[in-house]
Model the fold of this input.
Amino acid sequence: NAGVMQNPRHLVRRRGQEARLRCSPMKGHSHVYWYRQLPEEGLKFMVYLQKENIIDESGMPKERFSAEFPKEGPSILRIQQVVRGDSAAYFCASSQSWTGAEKLFFGSGTQLSVL
Amino acid sequence: GENVEQHPSTLSVQEGDSAVIKCTYSDSASNYFPWYKQELGKRPQLIIDIRSNVGEKKDQRIAVTLNKTAKHFSLHITETQPEDSAVYFCAANLISSGSARQLTFGSGTQLTVLP
Done:
């Protein structure tokens, strides 16, 4: 199955630790998006990346959050010095191209719990 | 800022009845409107989408209508079945604060189909 792969599925961190979330896009897709979902809420856009480039990070918090999509390997969403408010499901999606009107296919998400 | 409003937040119907979920959007230049179904603990899955050059699209028991003038679109599910029970999200490709079009999601509708 060449769907969007995310790992880990569940991640538990203590306040102040770092969280690293990984996403491998669908085969043939080179556009990756990260969304955050709080309990009983919709998906909030965080960042859009292409290989080696951050294209739109307008939804990313200014501090502690960063994302990358290197030439080789998965996209990484990194959260430094996590706080309880970072607890959420983080979903990655990918698309084949980008016109602003593309079908997005989502991974199964990473549930981050901050103790 | 640009947003998508979704109603109702919860909807219960008897098996076999129809369900309708409505969304409005703020950006008149939006041209892509997908609907996602999310079962508990699972990934959001694209079930149908519509582009602004058409007013209606149907796929078996699911249909979506779009009124560009009024800036609203709706999901219609006919002959509902218990397996249709899930959270449904509408989305529209709005201009983000990064000046690019990104999918902005509604807050979701919890659909429960009663046997």
Notes: The radius of gyration of chain B is 14 Å. The first strand of chain B starts at residue 4 and ends at 7. The mean pLDDT of chain B is 93. Chain B touches chain A at residues 6, 31-32, 34, 36, 42-46, 49, 51, 89, 93, 96-98, 100-108 (CB under 8 Å).
